[in-house]
Design goal:
The chain is α+β, with helices and mostly antiparallel strands. It has three helices and four strands. It has a single domain, classed as Lrp/AsnC effector binding domain/regulation of amino acid metabolism (RAM) domain (Alpha-Beta Plaits, 2-Layer Sandwich). Strands 2-3-1-4 form a four-stranded antiparallel sheet. The protein is globular, with a radius of gyration of 14 Å.
Amino acid sequence: MITAIVFINAEVARIPEVGASIAEIDGVSEVYSVTGQIDLIALIRVREHDDVARVVADQLNKVPGVNGTETHIAFRTYSRHDLESAFSIGPD
């Protein structure tokens, strides 16, 4: 599993709809509205490096209201909490 963290600059008046549109893209697991120099952060979880390009370059960057992105590929995980909860089945 490849995880990419995408920092997104968006048109301020369109942040809610931009975030919602990005969240609908296959491969995007979460989108957060944040404070600071960027507007949104998207977490991408895919199987292949080529899939990162498909999600970010071919789809996310083309969402109306996206002004720019910066993508970071994660290469080591120090906490498995999110992955364990994402793939758990049934009640605890």
